[in-house]
Amino acid sequence: MKKIQMVDLQGQYAKIKDVVDPSIEEVMNSAAFINGPKVHQFQKNLENYLGVKHVIPCANGTDALQIAMMGLGLKPGDEVITADFTFAATVEVIALLQLTPVLVDVDPITFNIDVDAIRKAITPKTKAIVPVHLFGLPADMDAILEIAKEHNLYVIEDNAQAIGASYTHKNGSKTKAGALGDVASTSFFPSKNLGCYGDGGAIFTNNDDLAHTIRGIVNHGMYKRYHHDVVGVNSRLDSIQAAVLDAKLPHLDAYNTARRNAAKKYNEAFKNHPNITTPTGLETNDGEDCHVFHQYTLNLKNVDRDALVVHLQENNIPCGVYYPIPLHKQKAYKDERYNEDDFKVTNQLVSSVISLPMHTELDDEQIEFITSTVLSFINAN
Ligand SMILES: *Cc1c(COP(=O)(O)O)cnc(C)c1O
């Protein structure tokens, strides 16, 4: 059996080397390393793929979030509601811009931001909601967009984990995750569903004025060379990374299908087990692309999760705990206004979730070994 990895980037590269290498070489030969034609080409291709009017590439997914918030003109003291159960980047940029993060609980089944908790957290100072499409499953966007409209709030999608996923609206129509809110951010970190070979990110919007504002912000606040109209940042996607991404974009749907197929096999093996809740997003009639499985995460009941982690490691099966500490309990983001009763789900999930290997190169033999190792541990303890 091939060595099991959490993410197999080498295996994936070996299969696309013949398209990626010439694409990189083209950049090397042109020496257009910054804002070269490859960046523009990738931007256009991603706009077409997502069905979004503007993609603005930038240096990473954390910058993308920050720049989206700067572009909307959010001001110190404005309250921004986001999920307690996510990667810290989301809350980090809110705090960095001196906005006030308001963390709220998540749904126990989807792990995404709890819509009722959003409603409860709204105050006259609330200016924006940042849903995170966690682990590859879009948040409950119809409800979130409705709340935003009612209270005149911006919606900033953190789409770092769900590129290529489709959201199915109540009326049955579909929109790609990242094309739903006022603005969205994504990350091309190597392990993401569309990853480059270094750092990268992008901002998406259908709003022409906002796109113009953001294009200046990513480039030192310049709209005309050496005229600095606003305080900006330096955040660029370099041409070599754009070359990698443009070569990989045509494979994204197949990559996401491979992830879903692996998830189906996992789900089948764990089906109806009294101690295991498998991820949602496969059994529903939402179509074939509503969950793109950035992570495959189980929620365990009456299982010593940490002992299972050790057991898997002993069997050379890597796994992850995303995320082990609720953000509202992190030193940097504690706030005396928080009430533990408002975080029941997150407080539970941090000790009961486990993410199994998930990538485009998993084979049946590996999945069978992983699932049988998990099951034999749980059934014996
Ligand atoms: C990866 C990630 C980010 C940050 O992306 P970087 O490119 O690493 O800066 C932000 N939010 C979420 C939910 C992520 O998973």
* Helix proportion: 25-40%
How big is the Rg?
A: 21 Å
- Order of SSEs, N→C? HHEHEHEHEHEEEEEHEEHHEEHHEH
- Widest beta sheet: strand line-up: 1-9-8-5-4-2-3
SS content category: alpha/beta
- Terminal residue distance: 27 Å
Kindly estimate the percentage of residues that lie in beta strands according to DSSP. Answer: 5-15%
Oligomer kind:
single chain
Low-confidence stretches: none
Q: Please tell me the total number of domains.
A: 2
CATH class value of the largest domain: Alpha Beta
Tally of individual helices? 12
- The CATH architecture of the largest domain comes to 3-Layer(aba) Sandwich
Molecular structure report:
The structure is a single chain. With 381 residues, the protein is α/β, with parallel strands linked by helices. The protein has two domains: 242 residues, Aspartate Aminotransferase, domain 2 (3-Layer(aba) Sandwich), CATH 3.40.640; 130 residues, Aspartate Aminotransferase, domain 1, CATH 3.90.1150. 39% of the residues lie in helices and 15% in strands. It contains twelve helices and 14 strands. It has a seven-stranded mixed beta sheet with strand order 1-9-8-5-4-2-3, sandwiched between helices. A three-stranded antiparallel beta sheet has the order 12-13-14. A two-stranded antiparallel sheet has the order 6-7. Helix 4 links the parallel strand 2 and strand 3. Helix 3 crosses helix 4 and helix 3 crosses helix 7. The radius of gyration is 21 Å and the shape is globular. It starts with 8 loop residues before the first helix and ends with a helix. The mean pLDDT is 96. Bound molecules: pyridoxal-5'-phosphate (PLP). Pyridoxal-5'-phosphate binds next to helix 3 and helix 4.
